[in-house]
Amino acid sequence: MVLQGVRALVFDVFGTVVDWRGGVARDAAPFLARHGAADADPAGFADAWRRRYQPAMEAVRSGARPFTRLDVLHRENLEAVLPDFGIDPAGVPPAELEALNLAWHRLDPWPDAVAGLARLRARYVIAPLSNGNIALMIDMAKRAGLPWDAILGAEVARAYKPAPEAYLRTAEVLAMRPEEICLVAAHNDDLAAARRCGLRTAFVPRPTEHGPGQAKDLSPAQDWDVVAEDFGTLAARLGL
Amino acid sequence: MVLQGVRALVFDVFGTVVDWRGGVARDAAPFLARHGAADADPAGFADAWRRRYQPAMEAVRSGARPFTRLDVLHRENLEAVLPDFGIDPAGVPPAELEALNLAWHRLDPWPDAVAGLARLRARYVIAPLSNGNIALMIDMAKRAGLPWDAILGAEVARAYKPAPEAYLRTAEVLAMRPEEICLVAAHNDDLAAARRCGLRTAFVPRPTEHGPGQAKDLSPAQDWDVVAEDFGTLAARLGL
Q: In this record, what's one Pfam family (chains A, B) (predicted)?
């Protein structure tokens, strides 16, 4: 049986469950227009904001900075990226910056995500194992109807993926052995880190996460335990 | 409007949402019978086990012991209480002790709880703010159908109620001010501690939590923001 002995499925979220690029672009478009950057490409703005994501977390992973939740990093990154689009963040009312920062709380799930999760939930504990913070994940889930059993991830583990603690402390709070947990992700590097910690792995490629020209994560880089094209197919592969 | 400005309802669980005494007694009865204590009162056994709950957490609250999740404290307390019922824990297979320890994961909700939570969830973020650990709360919720938006509480806050950190760190992860959160509890002392931290308060008495002779928490000890006889009435009082 596929994933025999697995009791929990934990999910990468940004890119795997929800379309961060489309959601951020949608909310950035009117902001950019209001602030004199009407010609900027909102998806390019989303990409530029997101490019600062890994370096910001790396400061935490390296120990240079204590654990800081993602909402704070996103806000810092927003203020850092605005000048690249000709906008001085000091000239934008803070409430407006905050509203745009919350775009990450309002991302839409991929079309198969909600129905697939509902099927998977019948047999497994399902939870995000995201670098997003708890409040972000709650807002996103309530808006989109994601039927999580719990909100886990970086803020509960106090560690950002792909640090091993992010996976191992998640296993600890679930009171499960790592091999009883499967990470579902659209990213080969996330799955590789989870596998190194003993978790099982399911790859669900999201070939348009980075837009039409996506070059990475189109196919499995290792023999992951399961490969499925969407959450519905994943549920079917697991006999649900 | 009642609870104006409140965005999240957090719940005490043992006693407020679920009937711990009835559930533990139900699972303890066959165990006691199997181990030569067939004459023991299972509800009295539940009471005796539970009496060790506050002292065990006090060791953590006082700093005498690092944060230790409730499943571990329950297991230690179980082994400590068995001799009072004539049972030597060293003579019981560990798997059987563990199975009984998980009785706390299998507690039934009070009859109004699931339907009431479903109504409250339409407007508020709802989450346990329990001293129970994450895995315990997940198992309980999946079995009983408690529709939490997230699992919060002592293990996320790394502090046991009524320590202020338990309430204040919960507000922090929710990214809300304390006054935007209301604690729902059947216990006046829990509500008093929450109020000292700035949370709003809703008292839902559970007059049979401690059995037919219950003497405490039958009525409000302060002018809590809301008093309601069950979760359905609470939802109605909030216009839901």
A: Hydrolase
